[in-house]
Design goal:
heterodimer; A: Rossmann fold; 6-stranded mixed β-sheet; 26% helix; 20% strand; globular; B: 3 strands; elongated; binds guanosine-5'-triphosphate; binds magnesium ion
Chain lengths: 189, 120
């Protein structure tokens, strides 16, 4: 990573098995530290996430990913689980973050409320991204916005977390939102 | 707008429920802090809980929250145990993310992020 690079951080949140690890994995240039992998060299975590151990299989709840966007900017992705016992961790991870991406499975929309609440509580901008699974109902945007109590200005996208070309649109929508969102949605951290 | 969501979900806002975390046992140690065990430190003299923390952390990095989840212990309890293990050198701690000095949220940086993402 370039010495004078800017670090920006985005959180990927949502309920169990909604695709957080998949998203971080797809977007990251490195194999993220996640449920299946534990790294053995914490000292180099931020700079050398690629130095991961493949031996260990203890469940890890957080996903880390990194994407070098340019010589100047490195994007860090943190996937964090939705269970209340991890809320403290999520709140800590939210500090200094650009914003959050909330993944939604249309078979259980309400399960994503928790992540939205955490982001709103932290006054972080966020984007809601629907991950479609086989058999998950396809609702109209209006229906989804209503179910999620979302303003029209809040970005809502559909994506496939397994495909970079699709997954990146979640991040693009988030950054666009932060740059161009209406004044009344702006939060001063 | 959040009102209706909360009503529909039948939830209490979580921060009201917890009343905020207890004071961290050690400065800079929070739920997302990553822990690394020093394999060279003896665990034989440790009490049961600190020893379990060491056993969990020895294979790799875990966050304080994850340790708490594995051990079914409340976060503040784990933080106290971890603080002692940090003091004794059994564990070392690392922040999961080190922000850059200048604000990462400037419009200039955001525009660069956007351009780079669009090129992916
Ligand atoms: N069809 C489809 N499947 C997906 C998508 N994203 C993830 N999956 C699949 O859904 C399953 C769960 O994905 P994970 O990425 O492990 O979900 P998670 O949110 O990290 O789950 P936990 O860490 O257990 O909370 C995996 O089998 C993925 O392959 C998606 O966008 N579309
Ligand atoms: Mg996962």
């Amino acid at each position: 990573m370039p010495a004078r690079a800017q670090s920006v951080k985005v959180l990927v949140l949502g309920p169990f098995a909604v695709g957080k690890t998949t998203f971080v994995r797809t977007v990251s240039e490195i194999r993220p530290l996640s449920t299946e992998e534990r790294m053995t060299r914490a000292g180099e975590l931020v700079d050398e996430l690629d130095e991961l151990s493949e031996k260990d299989t203890t469940t890890v709840a957080m996903d880390f990913g990194r994407l070098t966007l340019s010589e100047e900017i490195v994007l860090y992705l943190f996937g964090a689980p939705g269970q209340p016992r991890f809320h403290g961790m999520v709140r800590s991870l939210m500090q200094g973050a650009l914003g959050g991406l909330v993944l939604v499975d249309t078979r259980r929309i309400a399960d994503s409320f928790d992540a939205i609440d955490l982001l709103e509580e932290a006054r972080l901008p966020y984007t809601v991204a629907v991950n479609h699974f086989s058999g998950s109902p396809r609702y109209s945007d209006a229906h989804l916005r209503d179910s999620l109590s979302m303003d029209d200005e809040q970005p809502l996208v559909s994506l496939d977390a397994r495909e970079i070309g699709s997954a990146k649109h979640g991040l693009i929508a988030l950054v666009r939102h932060i740059l161009y969102r209406p004044r009344h949605l702006e939060h001063t951290p | 707008m959040t009102q209706s969501r909360h009503r529909r979900a039948g939830m209490v806002r979580s921060h009201t429920a917890t009343g905020g975390d207890l004071t961290p046992a050690r400065q800079g140690l929070d739920a997302a802090t990553l822990l690394l065990a020093d394999a060279g430190q003896p665990v034989t003299g440790l009490a049961a809980q600190p020893r379990r923390v060491m056993e969990l952390c020895l294979p790799g990095v875990l966050s304080v929250s994850e340790v708490a989840a594995h051990l079914h212990l409340p976060g503040p309890v784990v933080r106290v145990i971890v603080s002692r293990l940090l003091d004794s050198g059994h564990l070392s701690a690392r922040a999961p993310f080190v922000p850059t000095a200048s604000s990462p949220h400037s419009a200039e940086v955001l525009r660069k992020v956007l351009v780079a993402l669009e090129k992916l």
